[in-house]
């Protein structure tokens, strides 16, 4: 990106598996040498990178900062139940990042976005905490907390994703007077190939336009979209000027769609 670390003014780390539950972004910024940067974590599970990129774009568009680094990183191997072969084999660890900078309106790559969440579905995917009472004496009681293992109702998450991803992108495209025919690449959170195929079919996008590296890395949560995008740019598939329809979805339940003009 040809950006000096000291020129970075904002670092957002999208993660659900931080090294420090109080936030890992400040330590990351320090390691990058981004001594002037505001740094904070953003937790939105597999939608995290989209949420973080949209958040950073608002800082840049408002003039609050000129240069931001957005990172999607997760280490879900810390939280899977290795005795549950129905879930542990699905997930991987990874990290990806992008740099965004202020530009003129006609060169703004983020054409549009749509974010959402539905807490009534939180029970279908997550890592929940448990509290154990601790007697403090004199009739007072505290608690000691710990987290369990990642649990997922695959059937319900699949149903949610196959409905929400194409719905959000259809609405976004319509809002910008576009259709699936205008999309050069479809980039979804790398959770399940059948979800990608289903969304492509509903959007009228040929399967050969799906960016997928799921078979290489598994579901890397917030890292999956930037990892796949980086590979597609590096190998020459994604070219300047092309339109990418992108959607993240996952625990929360949460979802986020965006249209990117590369």
Task: Describe the protein.
There is one protein chain. The chain is an alpha/beta fold and 262 residues long. It folds into two domains: 104 residues, Peroxisomal Thiolase, Chain A, domain 1 (3-Layer(aba) Sandwich), CATH 3.40.47; 120 residues, Peroxisomal Thiolase, Chain A, domain 1, CATH 3.40.47.10. 27% of the residues lie in helices and 29% in strands. The protein is built from six helices and twelve strands. Strand 1, helix 1 and strand 2 form a beta-alpha-beta unit. Helix 3 packs parallel to helix 4. The protein is globular. The two termini are 14 Å apart. The model has no long low-confidence stretch (mean pLDDT 95).
């Amino acid at each position: 990106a040809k950006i000096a670390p000291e020129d970075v003014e904002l670092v957002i780390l999208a993660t659900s598996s931080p090294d420090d539950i109080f936030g890992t972004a400040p330590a990351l910024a320090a390691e990058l040498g981004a001594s002037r940067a505001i740094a904070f974590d953003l937790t939105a599970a597999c939608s995290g990178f989209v949420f973080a990129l949209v958040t950073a774009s608002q800082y840049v568009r408002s003039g609050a900062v000129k240069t931001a680094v957005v990172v999607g990183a997760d280490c879900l191997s810390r939280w899977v139940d290795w005795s549950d072969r129905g879930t542990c084999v699905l997930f991987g660890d990874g990290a990806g990042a992008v740099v965004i900078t202020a530009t003129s309106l006609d060169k703004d790559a983020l054409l549009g976005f749509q974010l959402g969440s539905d807490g009534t579905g939180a029970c279908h995917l997550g890592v929940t905490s448990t509290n154990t009472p601790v007697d403090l004496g004199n009739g007072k009681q505290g608690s000691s907390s710990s987290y369990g293992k990642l649990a997922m109702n695959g059937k319900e998450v699949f149903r949610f994703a196959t409905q929400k991803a194409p719905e959000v992108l259809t609405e976004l495209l319509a809002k910008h007077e576009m259709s699936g025919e205008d999309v050069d690449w479809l980039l979804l959170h790398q959770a399940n190939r059948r979800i990608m195929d289903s969304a492509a079919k509903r959007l009228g996008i040929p399967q050969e336009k799906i960016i997928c590296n799921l078979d290489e890395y598994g579901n890397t949560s917030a890292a999956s979209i930037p990892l796949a995008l980086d590979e597609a740019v590096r190998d020459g598939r994604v070219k300047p000027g092309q339109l990418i329809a992108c959607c993240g979805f996952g625990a929360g339940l949460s979802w986020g769609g965006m249209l990117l003009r590369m």
